[in-house]
Specification:
CBS-domain, alpha+beta, 4-stranded antiparallel sheet
């Protein structure tokens, strides 16, 4: 048996009653590792043990609800462990986390990291998928889409067959809600008012959903799935079995995450990855709107709502990038009285009127921009740019020259299309 690589074994010792945001900590950790596209994790419930508090916890017939020890084992690539570890440490307020180096002798379930043109979707799709019914009240599912977990929910009939899909874009275009990233910046009271109005309307999912969405089988190749996403201008595809029943979902992000991380591979065989030799300069978008830091906020909003990239880059007098502005940046940093007009403009994607623009007097691009954004150069490999996008949880990167001057913009969609051509 040949050793196929060195990995890290992370072990977390915690308690059964420990929580993270009202959820059992061990389940929250497992879900976080899955969302971060980690290789896998196992949770073990102990029979007895004690920790720093020196209290012995044991299972017995008369005390089955005791706070028993929980051990979580996670084995993965060193780079991925390094990336995810800060989130794990934040979640484990009480407990013990250890790391040790291990040799991986076999890992047959997820060798898909070497994505071939004919690699099947089953190797990257998510099998645990939240679905809803057409008759479900829209108000009951809006909060799921406005949270950080879901951006799309397959809609199924009583036989679990896909009849539609509900996305945050559907809420925007059909339900009159700004369910994009900007909506997630609403205050609790603003969101409560919108949800209460929606609840009174008794709207159902079936009225708002996109009916008869494109679906694929788990045997569909990843290259074909990417092509279908591009043709239909969608970011997610439900995966169905031969009987049409929902068995999973695959997203653009799932494919990108799979492409961005190499497998734990044999030292004697180095498989070239897509994107290693392609460069950012070959696919970047030029003509991205830019503004000076002193540009009035009204001007920035009008530029933002009329640009396809939905980004405005802030540059100094020598066109060096010093900031970037999204609709979420504007809402997050806007003053209370400004939010109404801004929400209306961002929802309808129309420029601010004179009255709304006048309420922003004195505010500038510098007041709302995200300073010192992550940037790349034209000769940056696509794979490296993709890893930056995923590590920083952003969708687009400014492309700059050696002096930091603005050249263009590169995003997840463009990278995926280019990598798909290499598969």
């Amino acid at each position: 048996m040949n050793t196929i690589g060195t990995a890290l074994h992370v072990r977390v010792y915690t308690g059964e009653s420990d929580k993270w945001r009202h959820k059992p900590l061990y389940m929250a950790i497992v879900e976080m590792l899955r969302q971060e596209d980690c290789a896998g994790a196992t949770v073990t419930r102990g029979l007895a043990g004690f920790g720093a508090a020196s209290r012995i916890h044991a299972a017995s017939i008369v005390r089955l609800s005791e706070d028993l020890p929980i051990v979580i084992d996670w084995v993965d690539l060193p780079d991925r462990v390094e990336r995810v570890m800060p989130k794990l440490i934040e979640m484990v307020a009480e407990g013990l986390v250890t790391v040790q180096e291990v040799n991986v002798l076999a890992y047959h379930h997820r060798r898909l990291r070497e994505l071939r043109a004919g690699a099947p979707v089953r190797d990257v799709m998510r099998r645990e998928v939240k679905s809803i019914r057409p008759e479900t009240l829209l108000a009951d599912v809006v909060e799921l889409l406005l949270g950080k977990t879901y951006h799309a929910l397959p809609v199924v009939d009583e036989g679990n067959r896909v009849v539609g899909i509900l996305t945050d874009g559907d809420l925007l275009s059909r339900a009159g809600l700004l369910a994009t990233t900007a909506q997630r910046e609403l205050t609790g009271s603003e969101l409560s008012r919108e949800l209460e109005g929606l609840r009174r309307s008794r709207q159902t999912v079936g009225v708002v959903m996109t009916p008869d969405p494109a679906t694929i089988s788990e045997d569909t190749t990843i290259a074909d799935a990417v092509r279908l996403m591009a043709e239909r201008a969608v970011k997610r595809l439900p995966v169905v079995g031969a009987d049409g029943r929902l068995i999973g979902i695959v997203s653009r992000l799932d494919v990108l995450c799979a492409l961005s991380q190499p497998p734990v591979k044999e030292a004697a065989r180095q498989t070239p990855q897509p994107g290693q030799h392609s460069q950012v300069g070959q696919i970047m978008l030029a003509g991205v709107p830019t503004v000076a830091p002193e540009a009035p906020l009204g001007e920035v909003v009008d530029m933002l709502v009329t640009t396809e990239q939905r980004r405005v880059v802030v540059v100094d007098r020598k066109r060096r990038v010093i900031g970037i502005i999204t609709d979420a940046d504007i809402l997050h940093r806007a003053a209370g009285p400004e939010r109404g007009g801004l929400l209306q403009a961002l929802t309808s994607r129309t420029p601010l009127g004179q009255e709304a623009g006048s309420s922003l007097s004195g505010r500038t691009a510098a007041d709302v921009m995200t300073r010192n954004p992550v940037t790349v150069h034209p000769d940056t490999p696509l794979l490296e740019a993709l890893q930056l996008l995923l590590a920083h949880r952003i969708k687009r990167l400014p492309v700059v020259d050696g002096e930091g001057r603005m050249l263009g913009l590169v995003g997840r969609g463009g990278i995926l299309e280019s990598l798909a051509r290499e598969l």
